Give the backbone structure.
Amino acid sequence: MVMATVVLVTGGTGLVGKALQHIIETEPVGSRYGKLPNETWIFASSAEGDLRDPAQTNKLYEKYKPTHVIHLAALVGGLFKNMKYKLTFLRDNILINDNILHASYTHKTTKLISCLSTCVFPDKVEYPLDENKIHSGPPHESNFGYAHAKRMVDVQNHAYKEEFGCNFTSAIPTNIFGPHDNYDLEDAHVIPALVHKCYLAKKNGTPFIVSGTGKPLRQFIFSYDLAKLFVWMLREYDDVEPIILSVGEDEEVSIKEVTDAIVKAVGFEGHYSFDTTKADGQFRKPATNKKLLDCHGAFKFTPFEQALDLSVKWFVENYDSARTGVNKKP
Ligand code: NDP
């Protein structure tokens, strides 16, 4: 008899959660990244339960009885929000993660994958980043709340495994972009912020100004590619040690290249400029995906421009319902 599998995705309504839902609904059933016939997938939002609260977390587990959990829910934000609300980022994420890990243990969940971020890595570190360097120095001061809360998941995963034999692990994605991103200009990450700014410049005939010099390099992963890698981890990766999910170091793109691709996808015909009085942040912080390729085998990442074009089209078509911050309550 084939056992029924219930996969609970926390943060199921966010950028990555929506991408997972898309992949599960569109990849052929039974394929490497597609839904298996015995699987039920649940994509939970915060409306189903505030995961900062242990009672609400337990209720969610009692309701769905998940055999597997992909834990994406987190308080997420851009640099400004991270700097302003360090304690909130630390505390909310510690509470959410602790509740999920403990509920997964008490409800005998077969497997739990939590989502970290390359922000967890030390500020002063030898590049490229790899999975062994997470705890080898303090994280960057600007987001230490978020980073420490996320690091602690790796510590807890090891403790749950050693004391109780739990099959808990974690993924470390680099910068993510795709449909359903957060485009709120006050706290968006770089790609959604530039997409939104460029869209407004085109619509209103206003200048399009990009903060910084445009020179820094970053690795971006398309949310649909990341979603496939989460499905792969769920089925084929059974190790407590985290794994970086990213395009290769040779696929870094500069902020200028990102901007040019956005301008093309939006169809903005005006002139744009860089505000070089604004800080650039680190020039580059490359992460290696060697472990991923060793474990998974070759993976066909969506070409950056193609993925960006798709994401921009989604934003333009869904402007009224997207998270633009326009209808945000004060
Ligand atoms: P989003 O901000 O798009 O979505 C966050 C999700 O978490 C939403 O579904 C939200 O629910 C849910 N959530 C937030 N707070 C709570 C809560 N208290 N209780 C229950 N649910 C909650 O995030 P992303 O999809 O971008 O991020 C997913 C994961 O990836 C996170 O763990 C993040 O740290 C990590 N990550 C993200 C990166 C990025 O570039 N975006 C880079 C690297 C890692 P609701 O919709 O109801 O508010």
